[in-house]
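B., you asked whether I could sanity-check this one before it goes into the benchmark set. Here's the sequence:
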Amino acid sequence: MMNFSQYPNRRQALSGFAAVAAAAMLHQDGFARGELGSDGWQPPTGQPHFPAKAKRVIWLFMNGGVSHMESFDPKPMLNKYAGKTIKDTPFADVQDPKKLALERLFVPDANGNQRNELYPLQIGFQKHGQSGIEVSDWFPEIAKNIDDIAVIRSMWTTDSNHGAQTQFHSGRHMNDGSYPNLGAWVNYGLASLNDNLPQYISIGNREYWNRRDGHYLGPAHDAVPLRVDPKQPLDFANRPDSTTVEARSIGVQLLRDLHQQQAERTPDDRALAARIGSYELAFRMQQSIPEVFDFSQETAETRLLYGLDLPHCQDFGHQMLAARRLAERGVRFIQVQHGAGGAGTWDAHGALKSNHTSNALAVDQPIGALLTDLKRTGMLENTLVVFATEFGRTPGSQGSDGRDHHIFGFSVWMAGGGIRGGLVHGATDEIGFHAVEDRHYVTDIHATILHQLGLDSRRLEIPGRKRLEIDHGHVIRQVLL
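And here's what the prediction gave me:
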């Protein structure tokens, strides 16, 4: 007599990965929404709309707000006029007083407070690479790759608090309702490169306001959260200890036989075909996911490169190595969150120097290693890497040694995937207050990424869900090869 206690229970079988796999298969077979096919509309085919320069994206997000002036946009005038209020500097009347100068003097910072006493830079800058781009001394390993990086110094956004994380990921304010993150749109628009792995993966914590992908496009397009833990990278992905490999195989075969019998009775039932595929896909994922996180396959040289044995960066180093391994196995969109939790660890309202010193030490070597590793394996050519944060920090001081939230100008960078390296695009003013040259709202980053993947966001629109023009953004063509 067969002992059915060996098999996963209903919750184990249908929760976690199996549910994600089922949703993905149903989407592929055209059952993600009841409106499918109405009025002649059809979902994306999974193919690019035009030739793509990138196959995949690694999206690195620094939660809390990295100071642009102490990372990738040096402002030496902050040192020259440190301690002075903005109105006591030559910059107060440089611009037309009807425009930016009045904002500098009278408009409060993003949190509604006056931060007009200029705070000096807390770190030095050096020129790097053939391009001679200046990078903060907090990021020496990223700086080694500066000739492969396009720094965009003219970003702006509108959410003055950390809901700006939602705004950067989705383009919409967190109070606007549920809108897909960029990764969900990529998942929706493009077919999988590897049917044994999820298409959209998130590593690291995601705040509640960034977990809304599935509300708009359906659960098939939500991020699959993974831990960099070889023993349990995903809930319900591992085979229960009480279930042997033989018993699991028998169970899968039994489900296949039962589904096949039903399929012979109803040969036109595509939903059933998708369900059959979903169980088999979930089974394959149970085999493939643990292998991704088996770092014992990596060389000592690679472990050294990513700093896996260094206490200050080993956690993020493992995440960057996992990102590379997921990318080379065909995952389309790999989102890695650093410092999530509360407002985010980069939120330096006080003690900015110690805050950014420790955070940069945690991420610099692993990110530099990722870029170096992708380049030496030839993957950087078709892998788009993005370094982003929700906003910058104020040129003026908060308290004695901090900076407040700053939405009027900040920096991000992009590398690989058809991006022109060794380039600075856009600019803030002399003290880093406003983006004044080639200004870009956050969805311009989205538009640029989608373009490199061969996608036109307007052709992804769903009937009855018209998006605003600003949601689509504009491709930043100046940074493209």
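One thing to flag: Residues 1-31+229-292 form one domain. Otherwise nothing jumped out at me.
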